[in-house]
# Entry
Amino acid sequence: MSTENIKSIENDEFELKATCINNSEIKKPWTAHLVYAFMGMLFGIVFVKAEIVSWFRIQEMFRFESFHMYGVIGTAVVVGMISVFIIKKFKLKTLDGEEVVLTPKTYNKGVVIGGLIFGLGWAITGACPGPLFAQIGSGFMVIIVTFLSAVAGTWVYGYFQDKLPH
Amino acid sequence: MLELLKQPWPWYVAGVLIGLTVPALLLIGNKSFGISSSLRHICAACIPANIKFFKYDWKKESWNLFFVGGVAIGGLIASFVLTNPNAIVIAESTKEALAANNVKDFEHLLPTDIFSWNSLLTLRGFIFMVVGGFMVGFGTRYAGGCTSGHSIMGLSNLQLPSLIATCCFMAGGFIMTWLILPFLLNL
# Structure
């Protein structure tokens, strides 16, 4: 097998890993997913009640005129770090008794280029993907257009993936 | 209690609850927190068009679609049941700067003079909704994650690529806010 073939297989595996964030091997009926809808719901309530989904809060953040968003993201990261540390340290198992699997993030040029493009878009729309869903739920139906455009952006990335620098 | 819940929630409450999403998803079902992937799953499910990037078992990831569906329902509950009786309070300096750049509505979560069906057909509305949305979808996938997947999940797991991604998200946001937005807002 040529090196090129091997490389492309590795890339495929990397790509799958980058998506497959369900690291559970257990197959469950779709109704088992309702717990995630419930968690998403709690998450959406927090998003709106703490006004993270507000375009104005994002403007404040990028203008350094409020601590709010920095406080939210900073606290979330610290709580997340401590939680992951505890999970690793005590080798906590999932409710189904599985080993918790954490997929490492891989670096390529896309992290920088894509990151900048997303950042530019974030300041325009005032929303990352999560808040888009919460804004629609909050009754801003026109954000469905923004959401569909984001789906289109994702699709176009998939279409041109091989031609983009990585 | 209900009155308290209706007020805007402080950052430390939101930060802790969002942070706890990470271990909750891991411990309930070995799922890594991330939201922008849902956009990819939607592509894979609806418009795969034989593109390699969309040929994978999206059903295995359908929990993610349930999660984002839940986020929309949560938005509905927060806005229509736990309705904040007051207009959103933002920093006076931000308000002045935006007002000077042709933003008129400061009552809602979003300025409805920019984000509305009527403005969709204006150049300004088109850029803020359609172009902005496209950049969010394209950029997050190119970067391999968004604020949740990289900045929260990735940083929680001490991933260097996620730190680089987060710095780039912020850099892009600063460039837009300080250099380009004043021009776009006045279109």
